[in-house]
Amino acid sequence: MSQVTLFIATTLDGKIARKNGELDWLMNRPNPNQLDFGYHEFLGSVGAIVVGKTTYKEILGFGVEWPYTGIPVYVATTDPKFQTKTPDTFILTSDLTEFVTDLKQKINKDIWLMGGGQLISAFLEKDLLDRMILTLIPTTIGEGIPLFSEINKETSWALTHVQSFETGVVNLTYDKESNHG
Question: What's the confidence (pLDDT) of residue 180?
Answer without folding.
Answer: 43
